Hints:
Blueprint (H helix, E strand, L loop, with lengths): L3 E6 L6 H12 L5 E4 L18 H11 L4 E4 L2 E2 L5 H15 L5 E4 L4 H6 L7 H20 L3 E4 L4 E5 L12 E4 L6 H8 L2 E5 L3 H17 L8 E10 L3 H5 L3 H6 L9 E4 L1 H13 L4 E6 L5 H11 L10
Parallel strand pairs: 1-2, 1-12, 2-3, 4-5, 5-8, 8-9, 9-10, 10-11, 10-12
Antiparallel strand pairs: 6-7
Amino acid sequence: MSMTFGLHAIQQEASIDEFRxxxxxxDGAGFDWISTCDHFEESPPRDRTGDCFxxxxxxxxxxCETRHVRVGCYVFCVNYRNPGLLAKSLTTIDHISGxxxxxxxxxxxxxxxxxxxxxxxxxxxxREDQLEEYAQCLRMxxxxxxxxxxxxxxxxxxxxxxxxPVQKHVRIWIGGLGEKRTLPAAAKYADGWNxxxxxxxxxxxKSRLLDELCARNGRDPSTLARTANVAFYMGAxxxxxxxxxxxxxxxxxxxxxxxxxxxxxxxxxxxxxxKYRDAGVARLSIGVRAPFDWDALHAYAEHxxxxxxxxxxx
Length: 314
């Protein structure tokens, strides 16, 4: 099975000029995707004082600074924007990028962020209901000339999203790990599912559940794309890998509950990436956080990506 590679460029703790350099580099380094994340404060949460740029504006900037990669967000929180507003924003980005936009949505989780910006933080069942309605609204707005929808949380009344996206079909991704609601929503409403920070074994288990859920909906499981994000803490060489302490510094106690970390030397990373490929990951995105380890990034592009058929850096 072939696999492509993404860069999940988390827009925190660095200047726009630093991000521009990162996006431009990735556009010519063998990646086929650059994504951002939808937060108003730093994530994982720390002291709430870190810099964090807004996601729609950041996606627009990525679209303008690149020429080849797909441009997305893992994932937009459905509580932060009306679905009509997001559909209009993303359609505009699709035109700016020449048809390279992708749409990712999720149920949200960052409670202090909600509270700080006056957004009601409902119980998870309510947020999952909102996620399902949101996905249906977006599909209608992207595809239909006129959209009408009446749900418990969102409504469209003869809504028109014009112009339509450049793409004939915008892929909607649902991201998250919840087996009771999030994965069933992906199997029913999404074109793809993204598993954040899962190890290969956990990814396989979730993916098998998705196969079962697709079958229950009368859907061919092969029509639901599967991707994964991993936190990037590889070192450029053995010495750098042995002294890399950023994982603990940036994730803290949160790291204990996650298995999707890319660590070690480039050869060790190749071995880890192969396990994701064998697990059925269609695209593996490395999540990078400032300060960026440029030596490690170059080593990843020069050694790891070509090992799986990605074009070498230009």
